[in-house]
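Ops channel
N.P.: pipeline sanity check, posting one input/output pair.
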């Protein structure tokens, strides 16, 4: 069963990172509900991706995020618990 998640990523090189993530999510056929990018003056950005995923998909995406050098740090939020 799919659950609603938000991935909050602190990134540098925002356009490169966003385009790579868009291709990755499309390849994995992930349904993205919302995507927000907040750019900071220093060139870094905060990217929030809200999507529905299975637990297996969350694990796979987590492994991909850990591999990206442009992702400085990230956090996963489970939104189902917050909405109910």
């Amino acid at each position: 069963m799919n659950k609603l998640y938000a991935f909050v990523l602190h990134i540098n090189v925002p356009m490169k990172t966003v385009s790579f993530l868009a291709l990755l999510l499309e390849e994995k056929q992930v349904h993205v509900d919302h995507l927000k990018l907040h750019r900071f003056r220093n060139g870094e950005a905060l990217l929030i991706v809200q999507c529905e995923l299975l637990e297996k998909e969350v694990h796979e995406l987590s492994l991909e995020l850990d591999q990206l050098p442009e992702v400085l740090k990230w956090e996963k939020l489970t939104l189902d618990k917050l909405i109910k």
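N.P.: looks fine end to end. The beta strands are 3-11, 31-39, 45-53, 71-78.
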